[in-house]
What does this fold into?
Amino acid sequence: LFKFRREVYLDNNATTPVRKEVRRKINATLKNCYGNPSSLYKNARNSAEILEDARKIVSLSLNVSSTEIIFTGSASEANNTVIKTIFELNNSKKNKIISSPIEHPSVISVLEYLKTRGAEIEYCRIDKFGTIDINALEKQIDNNTALVICMLANNETGIIQNIKAISKVTKTKGVYLLSDCVQALGKIPVDLKDLDVDYAVFSAHKIYGPKGIGLLYVRNNCPIQPLIHGGHQERGIRAGTENTHNIAGFAEACKFIPQMLAENSNLKKLTLSFAGKLKQINSDLIINTLFEKSLPNTLSVTFPGINNAVFMALLDYYGISVAAGSACNTQDDRPSHVLSALGISAEYSRNTLRFSLGHSTSEKDIEYVLSVIKNYFKDQSFPVTIISPRQLNENMLFDENNYILDVRYWHDRKLLKSLPNSYEANPSFIKKNFHILPNDKQIIVICQSGYDGPFVSLFLKSKGFKNVAFVFAGLIAWKLYNSDLYSKYAGLNIKNLITENKFAK
Ligand code: PLP
It folds into this structure.
């Protein structure tokens, strides 16, 4: 269909490829500085030096003092540390936390957890693009409020908040402000002194650095308590032998922030032209990103009537990686809380894709993506058969020409029983062992909530299996439409491909 197949990675808000200079730095640190930074001999002193150099570089990048920086295992950990500190310190006195409703799950789920522990959690008002109503927020802050949480830029739509104006309000009201700056770093200038926040969090893997290393900024004299207790590392705030090589890699990635910022006007141009050309392909699609106030690389698009799981899998089949706005592999397949908070219906949320461009995305990449999408809109044909949950009836279930492949992970299997006569194996096993599947039957792939099924079926198609299908919306939907069949047959005569093929890869 396409002359030149390309690999195009458009999920840079999920994570970024590690920059070669960063990889070099990490490798050199692993090789030369394996000593424990807490020990006293020479090799260890080298490690301690690496840490302090990194702290200096990172603090310069953010315009803060190096005494205000704590390295953590992730930004999620950093968010948890701040929120739980404030809750514990103020537990019986000030127990209200106000947050924007479009924060990352590492904020929202902590808040929902603390609610069960007696915290009063309120979400502030936002408009349909996600911009916080600062006047309303000001009124919402009362004497019982301890903390306000507001991200600098959102991961799903790219909306940027006026943190400087918000910090003026929190200062006047005498409450702390935590800002999640994970998505903003490298995409817009981040000067923490100028933003005047009390706490901020960052993550190396969003700026072409390694995964598993985060950063917590705590303004001097603001309270902070350890989430992980143990040794004296990170001034006793974050125990555990320091992740020296990843910290060095984080600092190396920070060195490229000025270069990234300089490249951002081109990135923005590319994003804008991508959006404009998408609109030309289909004028019905809805752009959820407000470009005047958004990150230069982020584009959230709703394709009415097109299921994002199926569309994402199709793009993957053509080598294109993008993200959906809704959670995958969950028991209840809830739509994205961010899109819901923007007033986008659950249906439209399941029609939404997020494209996040990166510094290596080229015009040719975007042209290729546009041509794949244009082709799909033209003939709407799909490379494998899509079976609706209603279609998969008793006859089909017990037809000997069908081979039902259940690609759920074990934790999902605990929640729902499998279809009768099905063969169980998770998607990564299938990827390595597809050759054990039959070629003379129709393979019907079923997953939990409709995300893995399209991917696995298209993968099998790409490996030459002729007769492949998947069940739309997965076992959750199938059970909903066939509750009688589920009670009668689910869990009967199941074969586990992994245990039956002990010598498989
Ligand atoms: N905050 C935001 C806005 C994010 O996008 C992410 C990553 O997806 C995180 C926090 C969590 O970062 P980490 O993967 O370091 O825990």
Notes: The longest strand covers residues 145-149. Residues 98 and 122 are 5 Å apart (CA to CA). The mean pLDDT is 95. The chain is about 40% helix and 15% strand.
